[in-house]
Predict the structure.
Amino acid sequence: MKIALVHDWLNQVGGAEDVLDVLVRHYPQSPVYTSIYAPDLMPPHYQTWDIRPLWLDKLPGIHRHHQPYLPVYPVGWSGLNLSDYDVVLSNKSGFCHGFRSGSKTLHICYCLAPTRYVWQLDSYIAREGLGGVVQMGLRPLVAGLRRWDAQAARRVGHFIAISTEIQQRIQTYYGRESVIIFPPVDTSRFQPVSGAAVEDYFLIVSRLIPYKRIDLAVQAATRLGVKLKIGGKGRDLERLKALAGPTVEFLGYVPDEELPGLMARCKAFLFPGLEDFGITPVQAQAAGRPVIAFGGGGALDTVLPGRTGELFDAMTVDSLMDAMRRFDADAYDPAVMRKHALRFDTGMFTRQMDDYVNGAWAAFQAGAPFVWEATE
């Protein structure tokens, strides 16, 4: 089976790139097609990959400022023909699912999210902190981009969603059915510690940007007078510091080698925003620690109320405060939390992807419908 991988852009590192990293390791002979590739902005090991960028890669300044070029991406992807491959696996949050292929190629889309700035423009603008000039350029283009995006989605053979939230959006925006395969989480890095080693602090590790709603946690911890440690950097740092009382500590960037211990010793991990999936709550549970999360998005898949954490139902300071006030860290079994986290482990992801891709390809060759059920 000749497989190609497709990814939107390679000029920043985030959850999408974590997924791609696992896919490349699992399919090492497969080239990676992408719109742009900035080697100086990506991990050094990417330079060992067979990365094939589009002509968009040559546009001036696009590596560091790709957002103003977003309306051009559909043109670039529409010109890419991948008919030489048996299976193309797209790792999509933008427009990379819009490439062309023939009737002998099966396109499986691992959908991180339907294109946000097309279908959820206002929230995307808030999420990315886009300036007025970019906003003015985007709004008139959205209607046409929605039509293109929906047409491209119709050419996808099968959709895989990363969460129940994304599965619902695929149905709403694209009118397509999908199955769920959760993103890979390296749970082996995280291990529980003894109860005596757990300390009396709540923890957040995140980019410090407004849509993460870390402000809710800062205000809740300040009003309750409880310790909160916040790891991460971002443009919201100064605003959050202005809201914080003396019990809130900003750690800055947390090195990879320090993160497991920081998580394993916390009283509970806080996850106050609305996310498509959310890897950090799974990491915390792998470390044997419960999670207090807003009851929406990916947290509905990853947090089991009463067993691995709690969900608060309104994105307000009072609702989070109530959950933190009622929280009893001793009510959760670290072994139960870790066992639940293993459902999202990298090994589970690769096994399920293998099972899905092989089954879909066999059905495609036979001209038969494909029905897949997840294996544990």
